[in-house]
Amino acid sequence: MALPEILSYAVNLLELIAAIVALVNYKKYAQSTERYFLHFLWFTVFVDTFIGLFILSFYEINRTLVYYIYTGFSFCFYFWWYYRVLQKKWHKSISIVLGAIFLCVFLLGFQTNGSQKFIFIIGAFFVLILTGFHLLQLSNSSYTLKIKHKLSFWISTALVLFNIGMFPLILMSDYFKVRMDNLVFTNILFLLNLVLYTCYIIGFIWTKKKYNHF
Amino acid sequence: MDEKEIQSFLVISSVVLLVIIFTMISLFLLFRKKKNDLLLEKKLAEQKFEQEIAKTQIEIREEIFRNISWELHDNIGQLLTLAKIQLVNNLSTDEVKDTISKSIKELRTLSKLINPEALKNIELKQAIQDEIDRFNRLNFIKANLVIEGETKALDHKTEIVFFRMLQEFFSNTIKHAKASNLCVTLKYLPNMLMVIAKDNGLGFDITNTENAGIGLINIKTRAKLVKAEAEICSKINEGTQLTITYPYQNGNS
Question: A166 near B23, Cβ under 8 Å?
Fold first, then answer.
């Protein structure tokens, strides 16, 4: 088995582990909006493993289109989630505006066969703004004293690290003319996924019920 | 991977790693700073709280000493003077004995108040009862204490603050209100304590800021200190009412 293939399976495995850990610890955050992450993680497992590995291998379906839709959906989910967790009115308004802009660009790209990279850059940039708001909100609250028990902190940290890492990867892979299926790209993408899902897993394990009220 | 790919891999992965590490360190520093700021703020608030409690305790003692001095002069002093006059006028020994016995009784009651242990371990219900008994004994005012619900022990510091608030209210009632009746009610509800003190004195115009003397402002400030709420209602010639509301969840009960 070639290395890119192994790394791709490893990402599937990471997604599965994160979804299982989220399920096992569900009671700790069942009251908060973070509970939707459980559904989102299982949806990711379904798309990436079930559709990505099995369905697409046997049926001739456009893989790029499937992942383009998945990328759009996942960013929309993040915008919606941040709309729910952000407390200041103007933060909420910004999340609506960013979500709306993203949706327009996504639909436009859908019609014009736009690239996944472009939509990802836009989405990642918007999500980074919202994670910044959320981390600032947390840093100004009393949660700072026991921040490691707050699940939304780990989710935001995971999203910041993943998206901020994706920027140089996408921009520089264009510069060095590295294709998305190239080993260079897959290696670094695996590293970023490792960071993303490790943060999720730590968050689900360390979180405590009393820290997840909203 | 060929040489070119290895080179691009090294460059891209170094930049990605660098960006991730920089972000992680920034987040760590931000949250550590905020945590330290919050801890410092909490510590200062705790110190301020302790200072206020100490100040409240001193004020309670001062008020008690003022009462003692008053009682020695106006009550026991008067009784002993009466005994002296009775002796000078050669009245019957039974009458003199009676007066002296009364003085001794008053003196014993008073000595209880000066007991340092009693001052240190103030219990709200008992402290109010003692004050009310004193008012009735000295015929200052007709006072009574009503307790509703099952008594619940509060944090000792909270009880001290509540007692001082009531002491200030009583002091206003006696000094300025010219009231004949004073009623204190402790309502122990399932989720909160309500302390209601009501007199039938002259009352005052609550909208007139000049009337809201330092004592009344102090009562409100003190309530905030223990996360309680104090409301003062007054109507001219109808009396004044102080209501303290204290949800148990706001403090360690």
Answer: no
What whole-number distance in Å separates Cα of residue A187 and Cα of residue A172? 14
HSE-CB of B23 using CA atoms within 13 angstroms: 21
Mean confidence (pLDDT) of chain B: 85
Using CB atoms within 10 Å of the CB of residue B8, give its burial: 0 to 12 exposed, 13 to 18 middle, 19+ buried. buried
Q: Which of A176, A181, A183 to mutate to test the interface with B (most CBs of B within 10 A)?
A: A176
Segment B69-98 mean pLDDT: 88
Residue B245 and residue B231: Cα distance in Å, rounded? Answer: 8
pLDDT value at position B253?
Answer: 44
Binary contact (A161, B12; C-beta < 8 A) = no
User: Which CATH number does the domain housing residue A175 bear?
Assistant: 1.20.1070
Enclosing domain of residue A158: 3-211
What is the number of structural domains in chain A? 1
Taking only the tens place, the pLDDT of each residue in B201-253 is 888 877 766 655 666 777 888 888 888 999 988 888 888 999 999 998 766 44
- Give the whole-angstrom CA distance, residue B198 versus residue B235: 12
> In terms of pLDDT, which residue wins out, B11 or A80?
A80
Nearest to A169 among B16, B23, B38 (CB): B16
Rounded to the nearest angstrom, the minimum Cα separation between B22 and chain A is 10
Closest CA to B242 of B219, B211, B209: B219
Q: Is B60 left (phi over 0), alpha (psi -120 to 50) or beta?
A: alpha
**A152: closest CA among A103, A91, A214, A62?**
A214
Residue ranges, chain A, pLDDT below 50: none
- Angstroms from B125 CA to nearest CA on chain A: 35
Q: Determine the pLDDT at residue A113.
A: 64
What is the average per-residue pLDDT within B15-30?
92
> Is A192's CB within 8 Å of B35's CB?
no
